[in-house]
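tool=predict chain=A
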Amino acid sequence: MFKPRNYRQWIKNDDLVYFEVAEKQTDLGISAEKNLERQARASILNYRTELGRYIRKNPEFLSSLEPLEIMGDAPEIVRVMAEAAEKAIVGPMAAVAGAMAEFVGRELLAFSGQVIVENGGDIFFKTSNPRTFGIFAGEDSPFTGKLAIELQPSEEGLG
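tool=predict ok
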């Protein structure tokens, strides 16, 4: 079920350009050194296509609530999702938002030295400055707007 991402109104990056790109269930909030909407959309469509092809051949990937063994010809995004599911002891689709944020973010690094990609609270970022990320704990939570974490830059990017 789609929920408006009202928390995105709090995003403030004076040194980066913010834009949003949505394709079906994938809804990314992105900050980069310039508007990369076209590149981000192409990346989203590519990874959605890879996931869709794999799911058509292996429908249990979509619905399993437990980790699954992955077929040998699986695309990298499927492998990464399966590894995350194994670590958390959940189904692989539990990792789809984080995987999409990271994979799109890493592709955008070819066009921008700094990138932040948010997908439903899952974040990938590579920046040259420390960044503060607020914690959205729900509309009615007393913690929303009161908690944040500051993360330092990383050479590889973090998610």
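Strands lie at 17-23, 26-32, 115-119, 122-126, 131-134, 148-151. Residues 77 and 103 are 7 Å apart (CA to CA).
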